[in-house]
Amino acid sequence: MQTWDGKQVWVVTRYEDGRAILADERFSVDPTVPGFPEKNIAYLNTIGQDRNIRTIDNPEHDRQKRMMIQDFTVKRVAEIRPAVQTLVDQLIDDMLEREAPVDLIEHLAIPVPTTVICELLGVPYSDRDFFGERAKALLAAPTAEAAKVAGAEMTEYVEHLIDLKIAKAGNDLVSRMVHQHVLPGTYARADLVSLCRLLLTAGHDTTTGMIGLSVLALLRHPDQLRELKESDDPAFVANCVEEFLRYLGTTHAGRRRVALTDVEVAGHTIHANEGVIVLNNVMDRDDAVFADPNRLDLHRTNTRVHTAFGYGIHQCPGQLLARMELHVVHSTLWKRVPTLTLAVPMQELHFFEDGSNYEVTTLPVTW
Ligand code: HEM
C-alpha cells in the first residue's frame, strides 16, 4: 500500500500473521527508525514524535509500562466502577429530563470516558473541553501548524498539572508517577509529560467511539438487543462487550511497525526498514478464526480472542477500564431506557473516518 506521505508499506490482514508480527520484537514501534509508517500529518508533528511506551521498544518499554500499570489493575478498575455507575445513572437522568431528540454522543459517549480519564489522572473535570479539543487536534489535525499549536498547549497544560501534583499529591496516576519515580530520579519529567499527553489523547476518544457505535449496532440488530434488554447476566453483558470490540474495529488506522531486520512473514520477506500496517480490525474479521465474521453475534464463544486492544507488549493498558465503562453503559442504558431508538434515519448519520478512531459523530436518539 502507499501511505499519505508516499511510502510503500506492507499491509497485514490475516489474524495469525498479524499476531506473529505484533509479538515479534524484530518489528519496532519507534517512529525515528527510517521507514516507519506514520499515521498522518498530525501524528508526525505531535504525539507520534513523543517518547513514551507507545513509541519505544524493549527493554525500556517494559520498564516504563511497569511503573504505570498499578493504575490499571483489576483492583483499581473495581475502585473506579461505582463512580462510573453513579455517573451513568446521572447522565441518563439528565438525558431523560431533556426533550428528545438528544445526542447520545454528547450526553453519554463523551462524558463517561472523559470523567474516567480525569479521575485516573487527577485532572479537574472542568478542564475537559480544553484538553478534549487539543486531544482531537493531536490525533487528526489537518495541518502540521494546527497540530503543533495544540501540542504546545497540551504540553503547557501537563507541565502545570505536574507542578500541582508536586505541591500536593492526590490518589491518581500523575501524583504516583511524580512522587514514586520523577522526584526520586528513576523517570524523567519529560517522559511523564509525554505519557500524560498520550493518556489524555488515547484514553477517551477510543472509548467514546466504541460506546456510540455499540449503541448504534444494537439498534440495528433489534433481535439481539431484545436479548440484552431481557438479560440479568453480567457474564452475557461482558460477552456482548467483547463482541462489540471485535465487530466494530474502531481503531481502524492499524498498528504501525517497521522491520529492524529482514523477516519472513507468510512466505514474503519484509526487509529491514520497510513499514508494516497490521490491520487488527480486519484480523478480527478473519474467517479462519471467527465463523461468519461479518455477523454481530452476541453469543459468539471465542470473541474474546479479538485484537481490538492490540497484541504483544504494546497491548492496551486501558482495556480493563474500557471494558468496565462499556459494561456499565450497556447494563444500565437498556434497562433504564428500553424504548431508546434512533431519532433520524440511519442514512443521515455521519461517521468520522479520517483519524485513528472510527466514530459516529452524533447519535440523535428518542425514547
Ligand atoms: C475501547 C477503548 C480502547 C481501544 C479500542 C483501545 C485500543 C488500543 C490499541 C489497539 C492499542 C495498541 C497500539 C499498538 O499496538 O500499536 C492501544 C494502546 C494503548 N492504549 Fe488503548 N484502547 C482503548 C482504551 C484505552 C484507555 C481507556 C486508555 C487509558 C486510560 C488507553 C491507553 C492506551 C495506551 C497508553 C496505549 C499504549 C500502550 C503501549 O504501547 O504499550 N486505551 N489501545
UniProtKB/TrEMBL annotation:
Record keyword NAD present: no
Record carries keyword Glycoprotein: no
One Pfam family it belongs to: p450
Signal peptide: none
InterPro entries according to UniProt: Cyt_P450, Cyt_P450_B, Cyt_P450_CS, Cyt_P450_sf
PROSITE patterns: CYTOCHROME_P450
Keywords, alphabetical: Heme, Iron, Metal-binding, Monooxygenase, Oxidoreductase
Family designation: Belongs to the cytochrome P450 family.
Protein name: Cytochrome P450
Organism: Amycolatopsis acididurans
